[in-house]
C-alpha cells in the first residue's frame, strides 16, 4: 500500500528547478528535491508523520524548533510527527535535499521500542551517511534496483542516522553544538582565510546576529576565536619541525611576516624564540628526570 505524507508548508524565496522525484512504499515515501533559493529564503513546516531530511552538496539548512531561537545549520535531521520547524538558507543558490517520510508505526518497528521518537535530531555533519544518501538520490532519479532493495537502503540510512545521533552528545546546549560545528569547519579550512561571514554562513545566521550571539555566549569575537585555533595549530606544526613559511601557508596567513606578527601578538614571542623556549623547557625537564 502506498503512503502519502500529510504535511503543511509555507515557504518564501524558493523556486523548484524540476518536479519532485518520489518513490512510494508501504508507510514510507522518498522525495528528492531540487530548488533554487534566494538569500535568506525560508519556510515553516509541520508534518503529521515523522520525517528525515538530508541536505546535499555540502550545503546546510538552518533549522530550529523554536521560532525565537537562532537556527542551527544542519546537514541532516529527524523531525518527529506534529513538530513545527522553521528553516532558512543564508546564501542564494541551488539546494538539493532528500526527504524520507514514514509512519510512526513503521519507524517505531524499525528503530525499536526503547528509542524515543518525540525529540528532534539535528546533525551538523553526515559524512558517514553520504554513501547511502547518494545511492538513494540516484534511485530517486533513475531507479535501477528492485523496490525491496531500495527499501532496505532507506531503512539502513534511517538506522544509521539514529546511530549517529546516539554517538553524538545530543544533550549539548546549542552554543556548544555550534562551537563544535565551527571548530570542524575551521580545522577543515585552516589553510584559508576565514572571515566572520564564512562562519555565519556555516551556522545559518546573518553576520550581525552571529557576531552578537557569539560574543554573548563565548565572551570573545569570532576573529579572536579563529585566531586562537590557528595559532594553536601553528604551534603543533612548529614543534614538528615545519619551516616557518610552510606553517604560515598551512594556517592561512598571507605570508611569513604576517604569521610572525600574529604569532607574537598571541604568545608574546616570535616563532623562533617560542621554539627555543620549548626546547629549553623540554631539555630542563629531561635533566631533572635523569637526576631524580
Automatic annotation (TrEMBL):
Keyword Transcription: yes
GO molecular function, one term: DNA-binding transcription factor activity
Annotated SMART domains: HTH_ARAC
HTH araC/xylS-type domain sequence ranges: 180-277
Domain of life: Bacteria
Entries under PROSITE patterns matching the protein: HTH_ARAC_FAMILY_1, HTH_ARAC_FAMILY_2
Keywords: DNA-binding, Transcription, Transcription regulation
Name by which UniProt lists this protein: Helix-turn-helix domain-containing protein
Native organism: Puniceibacterium sediminis
